[in-house]
Amino acid sequence: MARELPDMVAAFLSAHVDSVEQLEALLLLHRTRPRRWTALAVSEELRTNVDSTRERLDELVRRRKVIGEEHAEGRTTYHVDGADPAVEALSDAYDARRVSVITFIVSKPLERIRSLADAFRIRRSPDG
Questions:
Q1: Crossing angle for the helix pair 85-96 and 98-119, nearest 10 degrees?
Q2: What count of other Cβ atoms lies within 10 Å of the Cβ of residue 41?
Q3: Which of 48, 51, 62, 115 is 20 to 30 Å from the Cα of 23, by its Cα?
Q4: What pLDDT, in 10s, does the model give residues 63-112?
Q5: pTM, entire model
């Protein structure tokens, strides 16, 4: 699947995006910048669970792809601060090859499991 996506997009997805929900949230913030969103507003827009959406947004904040601002009344708003060429390329790829992007994301855990299994594969010694 990675061959169907530009290298920049595949690298960005590998490093920063763990779920389709997280992808959708990032692209929503990217496409509506400089608007600030609450997790509730994002979850309503995407029709997702607010707690899950908040977790995905907070992870994007930790990865420095989204800015989270805490307010006195206890709410957090999220936004992106400008155009990121990798997110622009991701947005274009998602518009043009949605299934390829989604397949890449959902296959990531499988690839990690395969890599881990390969690391523990018992190999025969050359003499036996």
A1: 110
A2: 16
A3: 115
A4: 999 999 999 887 899 999 888 999 999 999 999 999 999 999 998 765 55
A5: 0.81
